[in-house]
Amino acid sequence: MSDFARQQGEFQRGILSGDDSILAEILDSPKETRATLFGVYRYAYGSRLVEAMRNDHELLHRYLGDETFDDMGHAYVKARPSEHPNLRWFSQGLPDFLRSNEPYSNHLVLADLAALEKALNDAFDAVEGAVLALEAMAGFAPEQWNDLVFTPHPSAARIDLSTNAAAIWMALKDEETPSEAQTLGEPSRLLIWRQDTTPMFRELPTEEAMMWDEAANGIPFGVLCEMLATYDDPDGAAARGASYLHGWITAGLLTAASVPT
Amino acid sequence: MNVASRLPSPTARAEPIRSAKPPFLGFGLGLRAQHYDDILSGNPPIDWFEVISENYMLPGGQPLRVLDQICARYPVVMHGVSLSIASTAPPNFEYLQGLKDLAHRVQPKWVSDHLCWTGVHGKNLHDLLPIPYTEEALDHVVSRVQLVQDFLGRALVLENVSTYVQFNNSEMTEWEFLSELSRRSGCWLLFDINNVYVSAFNHGYDPLTFLNGIPADRVVQFHMAGHSHMGTHIIDTHDHPVCEDVWDLYVAALKRFGRVSTMIERDDNIPPLDELMLEVNRTREIAEAVLPAGALPR
Q1: What secondary structure does DSSP assign to B173-229, as a single string?
Q2: Which end of chain A has the smaller Cβ count within 10 Å, N or C?
Q3: Which residue of B has its CA nearest to A12?
Q4: pLDDT at res. B2
Q5: Which residue of A has its CA nearest to B118?
């Protein structure tokens, strides 16, 4: 290893772990000690990353308040140092961190709020994709509909939350006092996507969530309707399927419909 | 990743890239999301914009759509913060490919970053970290600049950073290092006037010595920014207006380097666009007063 490489390793260790060895290789300034000057880098490291987390998780920050959020942020910075050159991706692991580390894991709503904000952030700058127009569906003959498969918009994603985090998110967004966090009997099934430039989410009924997940797996419309028939009134399954599909298309959730050849 | 497969054949060109000096763009501003609407709806009279490369190294969405619109209306320069050109870690070709793809989209007048490193051993500290000014470091950075320039197919522009510490093994001054780096690698220099002021204060030297030690023909851009004075040292925070001492140093820089594309860089505590326009206009007014008649295009 070159001396330059060794020195960079020492410098980084001094920032990440508080090791002072590097101080032997730097100079006092005319007006300040080397320890204070090196401390500028130490302080900037943590504060810059926590500031990035505040930007990415604005409503989790609002929910926790400055002090608790920053304590959590510094714990995350210490546990998961950045490995990506772009700060945009630094807080991607936050939902998992909150789900798997005490004391945060004792409050599942925190991981859920982080997961919802992460999904919205991901939708915001997701890959561009065409938006399927309702008129395009007129091009399919009635006998083709059973075989239709659908391509979700690249920004679309599904998450399941075990708490009422979605309602808390809405209240925080509207600057209202959120209701108390609760664990739900049935998970809250959310669909997140970007409409033009705006990230959106909506909660899905259980059968619509099932239909979306299976459609995203390439299951054709006819089979989707048969699956819907197992959830509720079998005679109305096709109408319900068509209604959900109509909603997806008008919301800009699909890029294409096609009949496999 | 097969590194060799990403690089031109070693027989293709032994000399570093020697590109023509980038054009004079006038007086510009750093593009920030807070000003997107005002810029797109008002077409303010700003000569050019500098964009932070990493802010647009994204899959899609609003930032890239806005960037496309800005590029259609204004000259744009790409300015990165994560190239880590002085790192002793292996080059990150995934990052470089992303940078190259963005440059293909933006068609910038030039691509710049900083003479610094941001991490080693797979970590990224997201800071502009200092280096010792040694022959060993110079050899390393020259070879790294040449590699990146070959990969991108264009000369880089590198900026002097604000530093808070100096290494006891340095063998030359920062300005000697920058001058030699530019001469040997063919990279151009982004002369950050605020950073010169900050580093000079922090290390107790005269900023004019730094300024006069930089070869005049290698500087293609000035940065102007504000900082936070801590009494015994200054931190480069970009959260204040440009201070009067830095305006004075700008006058000295104009006298030494002549007309140079200049921009106001503000990253925190960002004021309305009109307020930053006053600073942009001041860069122009001072240049008009200092430079010989006819030096600036009408």
Answers
A1: -HHHHHHHHHHHH--EEEEEHHHHHHHHHHHT--HHHHHHTS-GGGEEEEEE---EE
A2: C
A3: B119
A4: 39
A5: A85
